Structures are given as C-alpha cells and as structure tokens.
Amino acid sequence: MPNFVEPPIESPASLEQAYGLLRDGDGRPWRPLAGGTDVMVQITGEIGEPPARLLDIWAIDELRGIHVEDGALLIGALTTYTAIRRSDEVAGLVPVLAEAAATIGAAQIQNRGTLGGNVVNASPAGDTLPVLLAVDAEFVLGSSDGERTVPARSFWTGYRQTARHDHELLLRVRIPLLSGREVRFRKVGTRRAQAISKVVMALSWRVDGDAWTDVRLGLGSIAATPVRAPATEAALEGQAPTREAADAAAAALSAEIHPIDDVRSTADYRRAVAGRVLHRLIRDNGGW
Amino acid sequence: MDRPSSTTRTVPPGLTFPETTPLVVPTDAPAPGRARPALPLRREGPEKLTGEAKYADDLVFPGAWFGATIRSTEPRARLLEIQLDDAFDWKRVVVVTADDIPGDNIVSLIDTDQPVLVPVGGEIRHQAEPCALIAAPDRATLREAKRHVKLRTERLPAVFDPIEADREFAHYTVESGDAAAAMKEAALVIEGTYRVGHQEQLYIENQAMIAVPRDDGGVTVHGSLQCPYYVHKAMKRALNMGDELAVVVQAETGGGFGGKEEYPSVIALHASLLAMTCRRPVRMIYDRHEDISATTKRHPAVVRYRSGVSDTGELIAQEIEVIMDGGAYCTLTPVVLSRGVLHAGGPYRCPNVRITGRAMATNTPPNGAFRGFGAPQTEFAAEMQINRLAEALDASPLDLRRRWVYRQGDTTPTGQVLRESVAGIEVLEAAAEASAFDRAHAQTHSMREGRTDGARTATGIGLALAWHGAGFTGSGEVKLASVASLELTEDGRIRILTASTEMGQGTKTIFPQLVADTLGVEYDEVEIAPQDTSIVPDSGPTVASRTAMVVGGLLIRAAERMRARVEEATGRSFADAYRGAGPMRIDEQFVPYPGEPFDDKTYRGDAYPAFGWAACVVKLDVDLDTGEVAVRDCVAADDMGRVIHPVLAEGQIEGGTLQAIGYATIEEMKLVDGRYLNDRMATYLIPTSLDAPRIRSIIVEAPFSGAPHGAKGIGELPMDVGAPAVVAAIHDATGTWIHYLPATPERILAALTGGPMPPPPGISLEAPEPNSPPIEDLPPGGDEMPFRAPTDPGEPR
Ligand SMILES: Cc1cc2nc3c(=O)[nH]c(=O)nc-3n(C[C@H](O)[C@H](O)[C@H](O)COP(=O)(O)OP(=O)(O)OC[C@H]3O[C@@H](n4cnc5c(N)ncnc54)[C@H](O)[C@@H]3O)c2cc1C
Do B101 and B121 reside in the same domain of the chain? Predict the structure, then answer.
C-alpha cells in the first residue's frame, strides 16, 4: 500500500484528447506527468501539495522524436535522455546536448526522464537548461487554442515558475542550427553520478577570424532560475580566447552572479567555481 | 574481470616478525573454520538474491494497523499540551502519550535520561523528539489523524556547539608519564585542532518494527535490528514486562553499521505501546526521510592535539583533548567516547601521554553507534599529526611510522603490554609494498614540483595506519558475560543458538563454518536457530567487531565439548555418531581473556584483549579548478587475526574503505536550528560505484591466542584509516592540509585560494529568518535553501 495519497490520473492517447481534458472546466488543475522522475519524487516525498489530478502524457507519441526542419533541430518534449544520447542528429548537430544528457541521474533516470520534463520542472539546477539557453532554444507550447513559441530566455519567470499556462503542454524544443557554433558544457556536482548540480554551465560562441561572436553563457544552480550572464557575454563578445579575455570574463561572471548558500554548497564556492570553470573553458579553447 | 586482488599472510603468534616477505596463504589453506576446498556461499545469500528473504516490511500480519510518531519541531522547548483537533473523529485511531506507558518512561540503555515519549510538562531536547504516537487501520486515516495533532510548546534556548555546552555525559583521562614536562623538552612540537562532522549509516533498509500483542499479555516485536537483547531490556523496563512476556525476533536486516544498535529499542517501544493499546499488530516502518531525521549518527568531534618529538627523532609526548557531541541524550555516548579516547594516541609508542575526553549534550538528535565507534574521529586527528610531523621533519610518512609503530612488547598509555598479535608493521609494509608507496610518493612529489600555473589536476598519494581494539572496551566483555549455545536435537540436528545477528556481514555463514570444522561435519549439517529471544541465549550485542572473536570462540568451545561428549559416549567419531546421540545442549559462557583487568576508574590495564591493525594507501586526483576529489586507487591491508572466510572479510574491507572515503570527501550532515537539512537520499550523498576507486585488499593474519580460532575482528578496522589517508593524499597533491572532515570541494577550494572557509562540520546554524519560506516545502530538485551560512573566522589552516 502506498504511503502517500495517490491522485486521480488520466492517460490520453492523443494530443487532442489531452487538450480536451486540460480544458474540462472541472476547476482542479491537471499536473502533466511525463517520465515522472520529478513528479513522483515530489508526491512520495510529500514535498509541497500533492497534485489534484495527473495527466499522464507518456502514451502521446506525437510528443516524441528528433528531426531537422527549417534550419532547426526539433526535439519532442517526451524525448528521453537515453534517446537524446543515442540520436545521430543530436550527435552531429548539437553534441553538447548529449553530453549534458549523459550527466543526468544515471541509466534508470535517463531511460525515463524527458527533456520536456526538465524544461517545465523549472529547477534552477536542471542540467539541460543552461545548454538550451546557450543555443537560443525555443519552446513550442500547445493547447486547444493552437501553438505558441517562447524563447528559453524568457521561459523561466521565477523560482519554479514558467511562462506555460495551466492548459498548455510543452510540445517540443526547437534549437536553431547555426554554422560554426561551438558549445561547451560543464557540470559540477557532489559525486560522479546521481548528483544535482552545484554549478552547471554551457558556453557557446561562433568564431569570426580570431574573435568570438554571438557569445552565450547559460548557468544553472546559481540563481532562482536558469540564467544567462549578459555582462560576461559582453566581456567575451568580439574577443579572442586569450588569457586576458578569460581573466576579464571570469571576473565579470563572479561579479554578475549572486548565488546563495543551500544544502548542496555555498554562495562563495559557487561564485568562485563558476569563474574558474569558465576560465578553464576559454583556456582550453584558446590553447594556452 | 577486474576483481580486487587479495593475498593472505600469516604471522605466527608470539614470534617476532619475519623480515622476509610473509607467507602468502591460499584461501583454502588450513585455518580454524576455513572450509576446504571451497568457501561456502553465504547462508542467507540465495534468499536475498531471489527476493525470498523477508525483511520487516515484507512480513504480513493480518489486521495490522499502521503506526506513526508525532515529533517535536523545535530543538528545545517545554511541551505544554498535545492538542487533538475536534475536527477529526479520534475514535477511528488510537493515540498514545507518555501517560499510557505501563513501566518507566525510559529507553533503557546506559543512562536513563531518554524518555520513550516526552510527557506534557517535560522538556523537548531535539528537533525530532517523539511526543505522541498514533495508530490507524490504514495509511490515509493515519495521515489525516497526524495532521490534526498539534504540539503546544514554549521554546527554550538551545545549544548546538559541544564546546559551549555545559551538560556532560562522560569524561575520561588516560595518563602515562609526564606529557607536559616532556613537551617542554621536545625539539619539535606540532599542534592542530581537528573537527569531524556527523555521518549517517544509510543502511539500505530503513528502521522497521512490527509489534504483535499476545494473549498472555506479552508482546512480540519483529524488526530490523542488531541487538535483540538490548531491545528486550528496553521493553522489560518501559512496558513493565518479565523476561518471557517481552519477545524480540530479528527479521532479515538490510544493513546496520551501528545504526541499528540502540535506535531499534525506541521504535520497538513505540510499536509495542500502540499494539497494546489497539490490541492488534502495529507496523512502524520509517521512510527514509523520517529515518535520517530522527535516528542516530556518528558523533561529531573536536580533537585538539599536540605532539612532541625529541632531538633524536623519537615521539616523546602527546597531549590530546577530545570533545564529542553526544546530541540530546546519552545513548551509547560514554562508550563511544571511551573508545575514541583509548585510540586517540594512534598506534604509536610514546612514553608521555595525556588524553582527556568529554562528551557533551547538545540540542540535536542523539548520536550513537557507527562502525568504528569513536575511533575514526580520534584516529583521523592522530594520523593528521603523524603526517604533519613527517612533513615538518622532512621525513617519509612511511619511514616515520616504521620507526614509531608499536612492536610486540611495547606498552600503551593505559599500561597495557602488547604481548602478541601486534601487526602494525606488517600491515604497513604490506600496503607500502603493494602500492609501491616510496616510488609513487617520489613521483607525485616531482609532479607537484613540475606543475605549471594552469594545471587542471593534481595527483597525490597518502598513507594512514591505525589500531582497533578487538571486542568490547575495558571490562565490557566481562560485564556482558555472553552465552552461546549448541544443541543436538532429538531428531539429530545440530543447531547454533546465539543472539548474534546477520546484517549482511556474514554471521550466519562463519558460525556454521567454525562449528562444522570443530565437530568434523559438513558445513550444511549445521543449522542456526532464529534470533528470537524466546529461543536463543543472550550472546551480547552484534557490535564492536566482536562476533567472530567472542561469540565464534564460545561456539568453538561448545562444539569441542559436544564432540568430546558424543565421542566418549559412543566410541565413534562425532560425524558418525551424532544423529542418534541427542538431545543435548551445551551452554558456553564467556571467561575473561588473559591479561591485566581494566580499571574503569583509573583507565589503567588492558583496554582490549588484542588489537587489529590497518593500513591504507590512497591515490587520488584533485581538480584544481573546483576542489573536487576523485579517489583512484586504494590499497587496504588489515590484520584481523585468523580469517574464517576470506571473501567475506574482503567484502568488509572494501565496504569499510568506501564508507571511509565517503566520510572523508562528501558525507556531511548540515544542520539548521538543530535539524538535519539534508535528510533525504537526494541531499545526503554517499559514493556511488562510479566514485569507488579500485580497492586492493590485503588480509594479514596475526592470530590472537586468547580466542580458540585466533580471530580478532574486521568490521570496523577499515573505517579508521580511509579518511586520514585521503586527506594526506590531498595534501600531497596540493600542499594544503584540510583539518576538517569531510574535506569537501568547498573546504579544499577555500584552502587553495584563501577564500572564506565554510562553517565547521557538525554544528548547527541558527534558525533561518522568520519570513523565509519553510525549508520543508522545497522540492529536492534544484532547491535553494533560504538561509545564509556564516563563515568560520576561527578555522585553523
Ligand atoms: C534519482 C534522480 C536523479 C536525477 N538527476 C538529475 C540530474 O542529474 N540533472 C537534472 O537536471 N535532473 C535530474 N533529475 C530530475 C529529473 O529526472 C529531470 O528533471 C527530468 O528531466 C524530468 O523529466 P520527467 O519526464 O521525468 O518529468 P516529470 O516528473 O514527468 O515532470 C516534471 C515536471 O514537468 C511537467 N511536465 C513534464 N512534461 C511536460 C509537458 N510535455 N508539458 C507540460 N508540462 C510537462 C510536469 O507536470 C512536472 O511539473 C533527477 C531525478 C531523480 C529522481
């Protein structure tokens, strides 16, 4: 017998059925259930109010799959980390996403956890989220009203809050493909698997001659949401990856972020390590 | 397959150590109990492997109710009232408070300070203190009822730092020579203050107990536990029951590590009280959150240490002050402190020693038994000192230990002469040789010299050595006077009767091995009676690495007597004759080992009948950007006397070593307002298989003649050496000493960069700001905790 209160659950087989249920006018909000690797932990751990009802979307195959369309890589919200790690498209076009997926939980979680779940769960420590910020990803949301697109940059509006409306589902993640884009990823956790990040970052840029352009830096676990670091990006924009540029960027980053002490680490450590890891990423690419 | 290798060495008792490479003994070589040609499988292994084994939560009792504990949420307060909200129909459940306890409101152990439930008017002394109990026919009702109970309290000031605490559980002094005078003579004096935090046992199976009321007015509890007779004693006192009415049965137990030594008494009393009230079986099965929040941890400790070395390079003085944090109630704290104090000097000869220890009360959940039992805390400090002395003397840490380690005939600070089974140098040489310590140390040294500014990783190697007293401390075994029995039933079965429990370490395998070997029968012909206090005698608790040595020894003696009786009576070999020779029962009681009796008042005499010896060499990488440590390779050499089952012994070495590495690197309980903050498996992290290094176990055998089979004990040994070896290797890699455990990346990076040091381990932060969201409501994902930790200004570097 379960130790917790099991909420009522519906398992629609199609998107249309799901949209219908989301608008059933019952008044009690639905909680979408994808892989359940966040939702189940919250229910069994009795963390927060249990969901009033669960909408199990696992059977909606329309939400799975990875393909290229109109110069962008489209990844269905229900795509698991294992599928991402095995995808030739991801390996060829955005390999850093596979790299990030490989750091999440361990095999069981990767088989079950989805990219969409990571996005909508909106944990500041979600490991794919800095990558999505760094590659200017967009999130396509759908409901019976139709579809709309929200850029990653404006999706996480506050601590565990998103721009998604209650009656919407996340359908897919859209990653624009840019030629010459380089992306690097680094996660710092307490142990080598099954660890929530203390600091996680993704850095992307394009090479223009000696200089870096279109620099993006996405960070996790250093604020209430996943964030970009605009001052640090500006410090790097148009610079070659020299020691001076790395020093300036690391200093800019340490000044720009305001992490806190929590159960996993300290504000001081996060600030210091964010700067040092960024420095290393630049150094590794500067070849000095 | 890349299996860790193991070699077995033998040192004959009473001889000086051979200079040559010790004999390598194959695992099927003759030794008491060591089965030939193949080692037996674990007795309970197949059932565990196939899922047939019945842990407490697997046991079915029709009609059983579910029990829950209402706990305090303040570290210290006066309990004014237990309020039952009228909105709930209380006839649907039963509620038990202190008023319903038929006997003394005491969880009986060493002291009588811990109540079963805090009475109204009484003092709440920690954040997870049981104040009332509820049982309900189903979990939904139970949950609902729980929500309708409120504790009205008046908050009292709490104390979290044992140094500031004024309530003392115990204090001891060990003194030999004149340490103060010798320190003045010393050519070199090294001082240090070392601090270690809590550690959670994190056994796989949470605490669990099911109480079943019987028609005769008694109660039988079935549960996950290490010490059936501790629970039995607690039940008799609080439930006001005689020996027969209280019955304790061990269910299959998923790990203990000391965590199921004293706490099961609490949960057994709770389940029993509810079962007696609702007159049906009651299940109390903790989830992980409750288990980590409320149950015992390893004692945090502060160890202040001064060591003096003469101009001829001898260790001549040690002044050591040990302060342990006992938490809110006494539990086993005096004995933990005692072992900590007795091991604080480390395995080194020193004529002038003064060790003082005190254990203080704080308003945090009680601390208790955990593998090593006080010794890992103080031996961490001892080994830090030796390694720092080696640095100051510009000596090799290996050579210094070779010079100072106890040899046969040396005297310990309690005046105990180490007459036999002294294998410190053996384990040291074995570990040094297998790890090529000198060469590797020279290599990491030159790597450090040649390191450029932008290097990302640093490699280091570290060494530690320890001793660990076998069996109970001091007069403990004499007072226990354990009994083990062997039975030949009427229908010709051989049965072992002991209260020693199996919790994954191998009791149920090694006992039949020893008995079968002594009787001259096959391993499978020997059965083990269930660990049920109505069937088995009190053979003492299954703790202190004492089971193989003490209870195993009793069983051998019982088997010798049984064999002689049957063979005399029948004129035939026991194996031929035993099936028709029953019924017969032999009870064997402990008789003191030879040696000087220990005086509990003066702390003089033989503190332990013998010591086990352990050495560990760790190789690791430090990420210089982040302070992260990756332990790569580990050689662990342990002397446990004669080995009964080399594969199980190796398992103890590997598991203990990994547990020590977790203690050294990542396992830190953080507290706010006296409450564990990381009380879930998502936040209290232990090493995974990916974090585990290659561990090479070397078994060294220096038999102890006081036990008929020469065995000492292994369970706790590896726990003493892992952490100091890791911290030595971090120093070797980076040039920085970390004085606090765990040596987290936060501490290492602060030390490397001169940044602010995180607060010391083991001490609770004050309560968060009143307007910040309650910590409880935050999800485990990227939860941001709403408090600020002060940095520690007084951190020694
Ligand atoms: C042991 C363990 C280890 C973990 N390790 C990591 C780690 O290392 N790094 C990390 O980032 N995370 C980790 N997680 C968290 C989790 O696995 C990830 O966040 C995962 O991506 C969640 O996906 P899911 O499909 O399981 O989401 P679910 O739990 O099903 O859902 C998560 C949230 O998203 C909503 N949701 C899901 N899909 C949709 C959709 N299509 N439309 C609208 N709303 C939706 C749900 O309602 C819910 O609020 C771990 C979890 C566990 C249990």
Answer: yes
